[in-house]
Design goal:
five-stranded mixed barrel; five-stranded mixed β-barrel; OB fold (Dihydrolipoamide Acetyltransferase, E2P); mainly beta
């Protein structure tokens, strides 16, 4: 439906409003949004504000996160939840509850604020990290940091995992994660998302503020394959994560802040607006040259060097099972692979040049005292790419 048709719809329901008044309101909205949003979209918003019921054809469009500016009403946004913050109660003229979460679309990460009854979705556990959610009939405001937020109040609607959306269109937090080694002075005072493993951990301590109230602080070092960086955790966030933290634990920090360290370099600061989640550390991939007899829980990536040979073998218990044998190579060397039972079926169709990852296998002495990778029931074999040549 065109802008003109929407105007006609408004005029038919509100004859007391002139066309000129509608167009004047449109111009004000255009200036407010700096021309970033199409006239038709703005006109649909104006119609909704005036209580004009629109057909499905004229229902509110879904806006991209990068198109959002303060002062919009009746906004619809879709994103994947990357962080959830629990509700808090407040007392002003009226008491109530407020909660928030961070969502991501293909362009950016954005904060959504839920008010009063809408916080029940978080308290009940119905809203979780990883879900795709459609927020409708929200309004946008600028927060204290100058960033735009979407607020969902009484009129707002929340739909989890909408059936008409494709999950692949909404990335996970990994798209917006920064490697520790990439954090330079240009990141100072900026928000980052990082994932790593706790390398060093120091006990929490309390301190007195100028107003005589008490605060709490804790420090640890987070490391990934590109480097390491100090992390400072403040106040109630210390209580939230203190029991989780120990050396070797994998952590994902969302919406943390980079600051200059007191002595030298940079450090990451975690406060109440940072989401912290324990994650399983990525399993290290070994090079073939580093594989030694007796190693267990081995993960290795390589290219199939010989066509797998499949045969049936009788075990020591008299069981007849399938076995596929082939050679795997990487830039450091080659090794034989023995894929047993179900893994024989997986690898039996492999061709020379196919790239695979073998996870949770073990290394033993094979035929002719050569090293070989052998699979077990918990091993997984993933085909990364097929040789099309």
């Amino acid at each position: 439906m065109t802008t003109e048709k929407i105007i006609e719809q408004i005029l038919s329901k509100h004859p007391e409003i002139s066309r000129e008044e509608i167009l004047e309101k449109l111009e004000k909205e255009k200036k407010k949004t700096a021309g970033l949003i199409a006239d038709e979209t703005l006109m649909r918003m104006i119609a909704a504000e005036l209580g004009v019921e629109t057909s499905r054809e004229t229902s509110m469009p879904t806006l991209s996160i990068v198109d959002l500016v303060p002062g919009l009403n009746d906004v619809t946004v879709v994103g994947r939840v990357v962080a959830v913050f629990p509700p808090k109660t407040f007392k002003a003229d009226k008491s109530g509850k407020v909660a928030s979460l961070l969502i991501a679309d293909k362009n950016d990460i954005f904060r959504v604020v839920l008010w009063n009854d809408k916080t029940n979705l978080i308290e009940s556990g119905k809203v979780k990290v990883g879900q795709i959610i459609r927020f409708s009939h929200g309004y946008t405001k600028e927060n204290r940091s100058g960033r735009v937020e979407l607020h969902i109040g009484d009129r707002g609607e929340i739909e989890t995992d909408p059936q008409d959306l494709q999950a692949k269109d909404y990335p996970t937090i990994s798209k917006f994660t920064t490697k520790i080694g990439e954090i330079t002075r240009t990141y100072k005072n900026k928000k980052v998302n990082i994932t790593g493993t706790v390398k060093e951990l120091f006990p929490a301590s309390t301190f007195k503020r100028q107003d005589s109230s008490s605060g709490k602080v804790m420090r640890f070092t987070l490391a990934d394959e590109t480097g390491e960086i100090p992390v400072v955790v403040w106040n109630e966030k210390v209580d939230d994560i203190e029991k989780t933290l120990k050396r070797g634990v994998g952590l994902q920090l969302v919406n943390a802040k980079v600051k200059k360290a007191m002595r030298e370099g940079l450090e990451i600061h975690v406060d109440s607006r940072t989401y912290v989640e324990a994650v399983a550390p990525k399993k290290k991939l070994l090079k073939i040259a580093d594989l030694k007899e007796g190693l267990n829980r081995v993960n290795v990536e390589g290219e199939v060097a010989t066509k797998p040979l499949i045969r049936e073998v009788k075990t020591s218990k008299g069981e007849l099972v399938k076995l596929a044998v082939f050679e795997l190579k990487d830039e450091t060397g080659t090794i034989w692979v023995s894929a047993w039972r179900k893994h024989a079926d997986t690898t039996g169709t492999l061709e020379v040049g196919d790239k695979i990852v073998i996870k949770n296998a073990y290394v033993k002495k094979g035929f002719g005292d050569q090293r070989e990778i052998s699979t077990k029931s918990t091993t997984s074999i993933i085909i990364l790419s097929k040789n099309r040549g």
